[in-house]
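Section 5.1 Outputs to date
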Amino acid sequence: MTRLRPYKEADEAAAIDLWRRTWQVAYPQLDFDARAGWWRERWRNELVPAATIVVAERDGALVGFVTVDRKTGYLDQIVAAPEAWALGVGALLMEEAKRLAPGALELHVNVDNARAIRFYEKHGFAVTGTESNPRSGAPIYRMRWQG
C-alpha cells in the first residue's frame, strides 16, 4: 500500500535519486547523472524553501513526490518511480496536489513528453500556452487545472 506524508530533510538523497532515475527513463538520450548536482542545488535552494512537498512511500521506500507552491498553485514536480507507474502513485500524488491548491494548479511540461501530457489531461489539465524552457530552450506547454 502507498502512503503519503510530508517531506523531511532526511528524504533529500532518495528524492534526488528518484528524480534522476525517473527522468533518465523518460529521456534516455540525456545524461541525468551529469545533472544531479544542478538538481540538488535547485531542490535545496528553490523547491524546498518555496513548495509544500509530499512524498509517497511504498514498503518503506520513496516511490514518488509532488511539489506545490500553495500561494501560486504552481506544480513544479510530480515524480513517480518507473516501477510504480502502474500502481496509481501518480494519481495519488495528483489528488494531493489538488488538495493543496484546490482553486487551480499550473505546470509546465515538455511538448515531447507525451506520457506526461496524457497523464495531465486525464487529470483535467488543459494546455493554455506554449513557451520555451528558459534553461534548455526546449518547447514546453503551460497547462492548467481549474478546481
